[in-house]
Structures are given as structure tokens and as C-alpha cells.
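Researcher: If convenient, please comment on what follows.
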Amino acid sequence: MTMTDTALLVMDLQNAMADRVPDGGYVPRLAGAVAAARDAGIPVLHVVVGFRDGHPEKNPRNKTFGALPDGAFTPGDPNAAIHPDVAPRPGEPVITKKRVSAFAGSDLDLVLRSGGIEHLVLTGIATSGVVLSTLRQAADLDFRLTVLADGCADSDEEVHRVLTEKVFPRQAEVLTIDEWTKSLE
């Protein structure tokens, strides 16, 4: 199976989000998926929330981002850094988004299409946030999709279950990290 058209998206694995995941095995599991992708020659793209100093992109009508405190997710915010266990290696793109979807306010589509990527493997925090929004937009953009169910985390376990078991399978293949990494061998 050729993987040259596949990319692993590691989304919102920033310290502020990763530190709130109650499952202590989550980040190590995801680090294993990142290592497997690298070993298989699959590009790893890191997607982060990021704003300019002063938050000129912030809109008070936006319930998610309108209430962010000054300085949050700006270049100087240590909580905006990617968790060190899944940090980018030199040459791995970091895509900065301005809203929930990895495509919103970013150059993700340009980077993917320029790299000949047609298949996205989605992971991230939160299942009901970046993963859901990115999956829906990527499906509308005709990408082939895989979601690594245990590579996603959400503060609501039931929402995570419903999404990964009932909603996502309509538009994506849903696998565990272990199932996916075995398919790369």
C-alpha cells in the first residue's frame, strides 16, 4: 500500500489542551502513532491554534475564541507550544489555524494539495472540536479520511463515543492507533 498520498494530522496537541486530557496514556499512544508515521515515510503535519499579539483575529461574537484572555495562544504563550512528546521534527509543517477547523484561517489546503496529499489521518483534541470540524470540511473537499479513535480525546466520553462509533464512520474509516500502525507494516 503506497502512503505517499497520506498525511497524519496531529491537531491541537498544545500544552494547554494536552494537559487537560485525563487519560494518562493518550499522549504516549499518540506519540506512537507519530513515530509509526515517520517510520513509514508518512508526512506528519502539526495543526495549532495561534493568534497574533493583541488578538486582532478575535471576534467577541465567537463563543469559543471571543473570551480568550489577552496573550493566550500568541507566540509568547508557553501553553500554546506543541506538547514535547509529539513535537515537530525539522521539516515537519506546523499549520496555524484561527478557528476550530484545521482549515479555518490556515494554509492547510494549500500545503496538502502542494504535497499531493489525498488521504488524511486525523488525531487531536478535541474529538467534538477540531477533529469533527476538520473531518466535515475535509470530506467536503474530497479528501479520503481515516480517524484514529484513540488518537482523539474529548472532555465528554459519551460525545467521543457517539462521534467515533456513529458519526465519523459515515465519512471516514475509524481505526485504533494499533490497527492503523499494523496496516503500515
Observations:
- The chain has one domain: 6-183.
- The longest strand covers residues 144-153.
- The beta strands are 6-11, 44-49, 94-97, 119-125, 144-153, 173-175.
- Residues 26-39 form the longest helix (14 residues).
